[in-house]
Amino acid sequence: MKAVLYICHGSRVKEGARQAAAFIEETMPLVNAPIQEICYLELAKPSIEEGLASCVKKGATEVTVIPFLLLTAGHAKADIPEELFNAAQSYPDLTIRYGRPLGVHEHIIDVLIDRMREAAPVQENASVLLVGRGSSDPETKQDFDHIVRLFKKKTKLSDVHIGYLAACEPSFDDALLSLTAAKPKQLFIVPYLLFTGVLTKTMERTVKNLKTDSEVHLCRHLGYDPVIGEILAERVNEAAQEEPICFRS
Q1: I want to staple 101 with a disulfide (CB 3.0 to 4.6 A). Which of 8, 69, 77, 209 is the partner?
Q2: 30 and 91 within one domain
């Protein structure tokens, strides 16, 4: 019997984990698998080990594992596979396929633009600060360069910048200070984050304490959107066609 195991990052903010689970539950009807389970890499339960065990307990003989992350970096490349390898040792006859994160996708750019328009009418000369989680993996910065190119193409805006909340430069704080020093007439701060969490709360505090005469709009995180749900379902279908991965020692 086929199963899908969705692995979310997890968050110290309980609402973030609830949002991730609710997102996946909205997407499940798009996926043709009788068993679909949700688990977390860290900071929330169930764990990857518990998620895999639940699939097997419900009768799974094949499991497609999907890292429910925006970009491909250390978690998708190393942390999740390592946890999955350890968990799979208990099930030597289980067939496991491993998918990829959502990745850079032009339809996600469309959702970013929607989040801006929710915040305020976008002026032709608006400045934008896209905010990413950040990673020590160099592929993250390459992905964001691609995201900026797509964003500029779709919006026709030219003053678009990037700031990272961790592990990358420029930092969110530095990028924000640099931008506000230029005194833009209108500034949108657009989080490239799926869910609320410690990082979004930190951004909210920083923006609240910002001293500027500019019109500043902090947009909401991506959150659930049917467009992103369809991309997630695509990732499941793609992975289901891949060759199984050996997670045995």
Answers
A1: 69
A2: yes
